[in-house]
Amino acid sequence: MDFIVKWIVIIFLFGGFVYYMKSQEQEREMDAQAKLAPYNAEIERYLLRRSVAKARIPARGNVIFVDEKTRRVDKFADYTISPYNQPNSPNDVDSVVLHNCEYEQVGSYANGSKALQQVCSFTVIDVASGAWSKWGELRGSIPPEEIKRKRGSTADETGGRAIYSFFSAGGLVTRRNASE
């Protein structure tokens, strides 16, 4: 009987820990969405198209990323841009990087899982002038040729994100780079 009581206590403790971790995750997500709400309220202003640039213009100043499908601002933590390029308020936004991303199957593995490569189309929008600059389609890195997983695991494998190709192509001018 003592053995059963101990297991019940362990199960309750584990359940409590899982509940606590889930509630913390939900709280962080709610905080992130609350921080983005003022930016999302200004989305029509940010995406106002007054002209189309003939050449590629990079994102400069304070930058936000917007998903083209949902027309919602992405969390700042989703991108590895300098805090100097993150706006402090909705009125501080200088550039928008509008993106539409998909995963394309570029192979498969012996265990049946798919090898996926991220493909994104990017458009940079200068908020002040309303100029849209299409950057076209860029691809993330190819996933590894081989994967080693436990038997029975069939989770798909993805390569690097396409945003890094955008950054490498000069799509973002950081404040540090602009001053040099």
Characterize the structure shown:
The chain is an alpha/beta fold. Helix content is 31%, strand content 26%. It has helices at 2-41, 43-46, 163-168, 175-179; strands spanning 51-52, 63-67, 72-73, 95-108, 114-126, 131-139, 157-158. A hairpin with a 5-residue loop joins strand 4 and strand 5 (114-126). The longest helix is centred in the N-terminal third of the chain and has 40 residues, at 2-41. The chain is flat. The chain starts with a helix and ends with a helix. The model has no long low-confidence stretch (mean pLDDT 86).
Please give a handful of descriptors for the protein shown.
single chain, 180 residues, alpha/beta, 7-stranded mixed sheet, 4 helices, 7 strands, 26% strand, flat
Rg calc: 22 Å
Question: Would you tell me the structural class of the helices and strands?
Answer: alpha/beta
Ends apart, CA distance between termini:
73 Å
Q: What kind of sheet is the major sheet?
A: 7 strands, mixed
Calculate the mean pLDDT score and round it.
Answer: 86
Distinct helical segment count: 4
Shape: flat
- Helix coverage percent: 25-40%
SSE run: HHEEEEEEEHH
Number of strands: 7
How large is the share of residues in beta strands? 25-35%
Low-confidence stretches: none
